[in-house]
Sequence to fold (72 residues):
Amino acid sequence: MGIPIRYVAKIGGYILKQHLTGRKRYPLVMMMEPLFRCNLACAGCGKIDYPDEILNKRLPVADALESVRECG
Fold:
């Protein structure tokens, strides 16, 4: 399955813009985990060792949107 040409053009334009402005480091992929808790209990995962007050933390929508804005 190929990538649609409009996405290729948009990503290519973004990379070209970053290159032309002289930026050596810029975000290309943003991964966000707004919920720290996981519904799995994998044996090798360190998340299950955290106390409930940390596991129950949520990333506010405003902070998530600000992170997206920062990444461009």
Notes: Residues 31-72 form one domain. The radius of gyration is 18 Å. The chain has two domains: 1-26, 31-72.
